[in-house]
Structures are given as C-alpha cells and as structure tokens.
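Subject: Sanity check before I submit

Could someone independently write out the structure tokens for this chain? I want to compare against mine line by line before I put it in a report. The sequence has 304 residues.
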Amino acid sequence: MILKKLLNIILVITFGCIQNVFSQQQRPVQSLYLFDQLLINPAYAGSQVQLSATSIYRNQWVNLEGSPETVTASVQSSLLNNRMGLGLVIGKDALGVHENVTLFASYAYRIPMPGGASFSMGLQAGFDRLQSDFTRTTVPSANPSTGNVSGTSDPFYNATSAFNPNFGAGLFYTNRKFYAGISVPYILENDIIQDVESGNLTSESIKNTRNYFVTGGMTFPVDHNFKVLGSTLLRFQDGAPLSFDVNALGVIKESVGIGLGYRLNEGMIYMFELKINENFHVGYAYDLTFSKLSRVSNGSHELM
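---
Independent answer below. Compare away.
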C-alpha cells in the first residue's frame, strides 16, 4: 500500500511535468519553419501571394515511448492586390496520454514599400483543446500470494479536457534579399486546469506562458545556379532560457536545397528540399540530438 501511494505521487508529478511541457511550449519546435512561417507569425499570411497549402509531420525523439508527435496543416493566400493576407493553421500534438488540437485563423495587412519591399501587420485568433486520458496509465501492483509485479489501471485517474481561446500578433518585413519578423502567437496566459486526483493529492492550475519569436534571413547569391539562404529563429519565453536556431540552406538551380542548422543545447539539423514542379515541393529534416536523450533516442524526423 505504501509503495502504491508513492507511485501515485510520482505519477501525478510526472503528468504535471508533461502538462507543463504542453502549456509552456505552445508552438511545437519545428525544423522546417523556414518553409511555413505562418506557424509562428500571423503577419506572414499571404506572403506566398498565390493560394498555397503546407503540411508538416514531426516525429520527435524516435524510439522513446510516448515521445511527441506533431502534425500541422496551413493554407494562406493574398487578396486585394496583395494588400491583405488570410491564413488558417490546424495542428495536433500528441505526448504520452495528452493530445492538443489547435485551430487559428490569421489576418495580415501589407504596406508596399520602395524597391519591392513590404511591411505586414498580422493578427490571429483561435483556440487550443487539450485532452488528457489518464485512464491509459497503469500503476505497478504486487500480487500478495506470488510477489509478482504487474501493471493495472488506477481508478483514481480519469480523462479530462480543457478548452482555451487565445489570440496573437506579429510584424513581418521582407524585400528581395532579406526578411525579418517578430511575433507573439499566444498573448493570453490561460490557466489549464487538469484535475489529476489520487487519494487526497491533486495537481491542477498550470498556466500557459507567453512565447516571443524573432526571425531573420538573407539570400546570398553565389552565381546564376546557386545561392545560400541564411536564417535564424530566436525563442524567448517567460521563465525559460533563450533558445535559437541558426540555419544555412544551399539552393541549386532553384530546384534542390541542402541545408545544415544548429539548435542551442539540442544538436544539429540536416535539411533537404526538392522542387518537383512549379506547384509542388517536398522537404525533410533530421535532428541529431547531442543531449542525454541520444542514449535512448535516434533523433527526430520531420517531413513536409
């Protein structure tokens, strides 16, 4: 009985930590953000001018049971002679017994500037819906007659959900060779209440924390058939250390891109992009982990 109570306490603390990951890292870290910046900045809506849709699947920390999986799909287009942009982002994150579904619509107003440049101001609004199915968890229990330990479900845990509306804003500037943006995708710091009870122990009221993204990139032409795209993404978060990506993508004949990146305190990123025709692109990224997770995981895969 004492062992079981101790295990229940450990499980509640563990689930609280996982919940904290979901609430703090509201936008999942994606290595191919360069090809779909609507995921992090609503002011990017309509930047592709024509109607375009992008989908990205990420399998993080392969071989680690219950590891994060993320699917995002976005669609965007410009209207009124490229003065206005509209966008929609749908996402689903899975982590252990938790699933988070997001839906956000974006609006951007673009101001033309000299030399083909433009400055955009964007807003987004939508919601997150987090579901936690604790009935899928098991607690080790010992058979008094045999002493064998087996996993059994615990009646103290149940399925819970939380619905949180939110909104965000961003700015985006671009010209023929350079772009820069800043955004706050989630402005409201909602309380996510997950009643995880075991006896008299309750874990609840974990608050969302605000994220700030700063992006920048530049094109370096080498000759008519080759150029290098340099980019960076900085992540600021209340109560968390600074994180950033630095990437370089070499593009051959506007058709094939091969790139390399570095993510602070995490590892290297290897990227590949192929332009199959004027209307269809595919991409792939592999994250090589340098942290202690490399002992149990073969890194992360991402497909666009």
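---
OP: Matches mine. For the report I'm noting this point. The longest strand covers residues 117-133.
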